[in-house]
Ger(X)C family germination protein (Siminovitchia thermophila), 412 residues
Amino acid sequence: MKRFFLLLFSAFSIIFLTTGCGDKEELERQAFVIALGLDKDEKDHLISVTFQVANPQVNTSKAAEAQNEQPSNIISVSAPDIFSAKELTQSSLSRKVTFAHLRTIIIGEELAKTDEFRHIIDSAVIDPELRRESIMIVSQEKASDYIHKNKPALESSPHKYYEFMEERWDSTGLVSKSNLNNFYHRSEGELALIIYATTKRNETVHTDEDTYKAGQVPQKAGDPVQMIGSAVMQNRKMIGTLNGEETRMALLIKRKSPINSFVASFIDPLNEKFRISARVIKDGHTKINVSPNQDPLKVAVSVPIKLQVRSNPGLTNYTTNEKNQTILKKSIEKQLEKDALKLIKKTKVEYKGEPFAWHINARKHFWTMKDFQKYDWEKHYQHAKVDVRFKVTIENFGAQIKPIPIKPSEKD
């Protein structure tokens, strides 16, 4: 009898365990969207949705059979929302369209600046296939044009391109790595920074290597896409942009910076015709002290960083001269503090909000969330007195021998 019930229980267990496979789909029957583009349509209350669908035979064991095939298929349709567009693509695709591997969402700047964009992106999270880890990018041109023109020379698979670019963003700090999850966490008045990109060119030459926006970098060859700077979003709507330098600074003065180190250049204080390049390393969390009980609001920020000097074109003796070392250290601190205060003023005056997540420190001073909302953080921030201090420690000065001085020419 025990054996009978044991067999009966095992049979029912197998049935229950296999019921979850009823809606399974074979891989070869699915069309994996790797990039999704959103644009404003010519007709009101419609959007143009572009799907970049991966070709499963490229970069696989069957690659020899698909030598003349494109790595992806790009389809654009007009629809009221993303889900309707997803269904409409099935009119031309034989495989079931899925967002299971989607990791990049590109929004055209024209659409990002409209009030409709908020409703479009908010409703997108309903789809369980749309992962919140998906990277968000705002393109200057239409998202469809961006996707069509983005043909990286070194990567045949588009999904690999975005995967590798994501690793580079962590090491440069020239863009603010943003995804759906971070975007949704921003409440009404807070500012969100989204990656800014373009395939257009409006090249300019700056002496400071990071003061560019996407499309301005003087690039003569290479991949058509440039990603540098940030699109500033407020209330799920684009209201402006930051260049690469401003984006880096915004990430640096956050309490927990998403970048650990990057290379930057600074004016040589003893020879201002040249700039000194150094690796900047975040030496711990930024210390933020918010005093909401004072009028006006006071915010004190202390940023600990370490520097490793990489190049010294002016050949000023910083290696063995301690006096020169002190001058360089104080000069870099002043340059960083000046840039930080300039950015803070811009966010207060132009955007009337802050992207540094300082409101999290302010919330600790209130008993309830309702009290904090009543305080109106954005309004007080616009009139706040902000003090920013950089604590710079120089680890090394590059060359370990005394530099050879340059002989002045007759022209000098």
